[in-house]
Each structure stands twice: as structure tokens, then as C-alpha cells.
Amino acid sequence: MVDNPGQIVRKLDDAAVLAAYARWAPVYDMFFRIPLYWGRRAAVRHVNELDGHVLEAGVGTGMSLPLYKDRLKITGIDISEEMLKKARKKVSHRPNIDDLQVMDAGRLSYPDNHFDVVVAMYVITVVPDPDKVVQELERVTKPGGTVILVNHFSTDTGPWSVFEQGLKKFGHRLGWNPEFPRSRILGRTRLQLEIEESVPPLRLFTLLKFRKRSS
Ligand SMILES: C[S@@+](CC[C@H](N)C(=O)[O-])C[C@H]1O[C@@H](n2cnc3c(N)ncnc32)[C@H](O)[C@@H]1O
């Protein structure tokens, strides 16, 4: 747990993310319930086929939480207290939601090899240091465990690349970095890609499911 919220604000970009999600929190569900629904549903469908203790990093307002099967124990973290407040309201009656707390996904306070499943939906491109976050998600996953990411991964060509270039100038305000190629994750030696799926709308998002190798 991050006891001192000041610890989170290490640099301007972290502050920008916190400020952006403090602004988004009151209206987030209204804008993002539907556009991000398919990715959440796809990721949770994979998680629900597995067993054990699940970490959802960047759980936001908790829109995925009611979708998890009761037999799974779910821990959620997010850097934004404003987003988490909304999440807590949604699941006060769900005993399998073990814990929802403020934490930086780039500096998780959990020990190595702790969770059976780690999932992050639409998070990798909203953090200042995505490589550090992926490293942390991998670290806290048990060997043989599963890491699932849903995200938009940037491309060098095609209409989305034009869109990404256009959005770059608003990234700071929106709390989103539209440039993150999937090759940055596929290069990790301990994460073996098992499933790659395109996710609506318009195949804008991709689900990647990895197994963590033993060594
Ligand atoms: C686009 S939202 C996605 C929320 C949720 N996963 C969903 O499907 O709606 C990104 C979330 O990541 C959180 N976030 C950003 N940086 C983070 C960090 N370093 N550690 C943990 N959460 C972070 C934001 O506060 C926000 O709730």
C-alpha cells in the first residue's frame, strides 16, 4: 500500500495521470462503459476459466468486477483514489473482491510470484513507464501463472497511425500515451504468448494472454 500519496507523484507525468483520472472519475462510466466493454468481457472470460487469486491492475471504477466468477479471489489496485471510490461502491456486496487499494502498478507492494492471474485492461498506455509496469505484472505472477493485457497497441502504418499521431498532442491532458507497440511486450523472455485476439470496436484493441515461464 502507498501510505503517502506524495510518493506516487514522482514526476510530472504521474501527476498528469492522477489529475486526468480525478477529472474522468465522475463521468468515466458514462463515456467508457460501452467502448471498452468488449475488451473487459474478453479478458474476464479468460480469467473466469482459471482458478486462484487474481490481481486486476488499473481496476479503475471497477466495471469488470461484477463479471468475475464468485470462486475467484480478486484484488484490485489503481493509482487514482477517485476511480477506486467508484469501484468500491459497485462491489460492497461481493465477498470475493478481497481488496481494492491505491497503488502504482509500476511499484507493486506484493512479493514475487504472488498471484495466479494478473490482468490489466486499458492500462499500459496510460502509465508514464509501461515497460516498468509490465515488468511488475510479470514479477508478481506465479511461474506457470497467466498475464492478460488488453490495450490498443500502436502501429506504424494505416489509418490508426494517423489517429495516434493526432492524439499525441492531447495525451498529457487525456492521461493517455497512444504510442506503445506490442513488440515492447512480446520481447519479454519469461512471458510466453498463448493467445492474441482482436477486440471490438473496429479491431482497435488487442487481447494478449501470456503464461509466465518458470525461468
Ligand atoms: C483507461 S482506465 C481503465 C480502467 C479499467 N481497467 C477499465 O477497464 O475501465 C486506466 C486506469 O489506469 C489507472 N492507472 C493509471 N496509471 C496507473 C498506475 N501507474 N498504476 C495503477 N493504475 C494506474 C487509472 O487511474 C485508470 O483508472
Describe this structure in words.
There is one protein chain. This protein is of the alpha/beta class. It has one domain: Rossmann fold (3-Layer(aba) Sandwich), CATH 3.40.50. The chain contains eight helices and seven strands. Strands 3-2-1-4-5-7-6 form a seven-stranded mixed beta sheet. A hairpin with a 5-residue loop joins strand 6 and strand 7. The longest helix has 13 residues. The N terminus is likely disordered.
Q: β content, as a range?
A: 15-25%
Average of pLDDT: 87
**Ions, cofactors, ligands: which are bound?**
S-adenosylmethionine
Main sheet attributes: strand count, strand direction, barrel closure = 7 strands, mixed
Oligomer: single chain
**Percentage of residues in helical conformation:** 25-40%
Question: What's the SSE pattern?
Answer: HHHEEHEEHEHHHEE
What is the third-level CATH name, the topology?
Rossmann fold
Give the C-level CATH assignment. Alpha Beta
Q: Given the C-alpha coordinates, what overall shape results?
A: globular
Over all CA atoms, what is the radius of gyration?
16 Å
